[in-house]
């Protein structure tokens, strides 16, 4: 199987022209493509619709679309006006990290795919969900999901996006280079001083750093961070 890395646009989203070029160069071979539903550094969301349009244009009929929705998959479905990335859009598999938005206290995730794509050599499936697997993880997921039922749907998700827009605008108000993709709780910006990076434990790659506005980040924390950035920018 040949691995091909497709270029991205300036905002981190898939470069669909480059995707088309690679598909065309490798026809009639089938394609397995992994789309980002919230890229790691910039929070970009690849378009399933545009990706399938490339496939249709080149008459590619054998393909598998996987969506990496590690963070955004936990909250985007709770907000009505966000891009859809469900199986009704024609994807074939989807992965979501449960230790991110849901806050399960240890790394865990779920992988969803179409039933017709599953193959199993196991004759007997043990019905007891606690069987030989990690029952603590299962219980923690149950708790996290049920906790969400006590909160009006989408409340925390909308608050995250509002906080991201708030700090994004504050940075722009002082003319500090900062960007935010639509429907993202992540703001990326020009890498600040080593002192700020160390204090706020900023994830940084080359000339960029980013912050992710999760549920525990309140406006006091955001404003303190902004004051540090403002002082650095003077």
From TrEMBL:
<dbReference type="Pfam" id="PF00282">
    <property type="entry name" value="Pyridoxal_deC"/>
</dbReference>
<dbReference type="InterPro" id="IPR015421">
    <property type="entry name" value="PyrdxlP-dep_Trfase_major"/>
</dbReference>
<dbReference type="GO" id="GO:0016831">
    <property type="term" value="F:carboxy-lyase activity"/>
</dbReference>
<dbReference type="InterPro" id="IPR051151">
    <property type="entry name" value="Group_II_Decarboxylase"/>
</dbReference>
<keyword id="KW-0663">Pyridoxal phosphate</keyword>
<dbReference type="InterPro" id="IPR015422">
    <property type="entry name" value="PyrdxlP-dep_Trfase_small"/>
</dbReference>
<keyword id="KW-0210">Decarboxylase</keyword>
<dbReference type="InterPro" id="IPR015424">
    <property type="entry name" value="PyrdxlP-dep_Trfase"/>
</dbReference>
<keyword id="KW-0456">Lyase</keyword>
<dbReference type="InterPro" id="IPR002129">
    <property type="entry name" value="PyrdxlP-dep_de-COase"/>
</dbReference>
<protein>
    <recommendedName>
        <fullName>Histidine decarboxylase</fullName>
    </recommendedName>
</protein>
<feature type="modified residue" description="N6-(pyridoxal phosphate)lysine">
    <location>
        <position position="100"/>
    </location>
</feature>
<dbReference type="GO" id="GO:0019752">
    <property type="term" value="P:carboxylic acid metabolic process"/>
</dbReference>
<dbReference type="GO" id="GO:0030170">
    <property type="term" value="F:pyridoxal phosphate binding"/>
</dbReference>
<comment type="similarity">
    <text>Belongs to the group II decarboxylase family.</text>
</comment>
């Amino acid at each position: 199987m040949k691995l091909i890395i497709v270029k991205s646009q300036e905002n981190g989203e898939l470069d669909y022209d480059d995707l088309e070029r690679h598909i065309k160069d490798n026809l009639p071979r089938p394609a397995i493509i992994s789309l980002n539903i919230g890229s790691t550094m910039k929070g970009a969301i690849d378009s399933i619709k545009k990706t399938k349009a490339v496939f249709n244009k080149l008459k590619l009929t054998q393909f598998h679309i996987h969506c990496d929705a590690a963070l955004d998959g936990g909250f985007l479905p709770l907000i009505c006006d966000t891009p859809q990335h469900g199986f009704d859009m024609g994807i074939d598999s989807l992965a979501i990290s449960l230790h991110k938005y849901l806050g399960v206290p240890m790394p865990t995730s779920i992988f969803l795919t179409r039933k017709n794509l599953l193959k199993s050599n196991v004759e007997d499936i043990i019905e007891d969900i606690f069987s030989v697997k990690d029952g603590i993880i299962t219980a923690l997921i149950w708790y996290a999901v049920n906790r969400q039922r006590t909160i009006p749907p989408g409340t925390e998700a909308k608050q995250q996006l509002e906080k991201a827009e708030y700090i994004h605008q504050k940075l722009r108000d002082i003319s500090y280079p900062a960007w935010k993709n639509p429907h993202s709780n992540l703001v990326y910006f020009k890498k600040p001083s080593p002192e700020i990076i160390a204090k706020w434990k900023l994830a940084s790659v080359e000339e960029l750093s980013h912050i992710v506005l999760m549920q525990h980040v309140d406006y006091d924390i955001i404003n303190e961070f902004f004051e540090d950035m403002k002082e650095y920018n003077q």
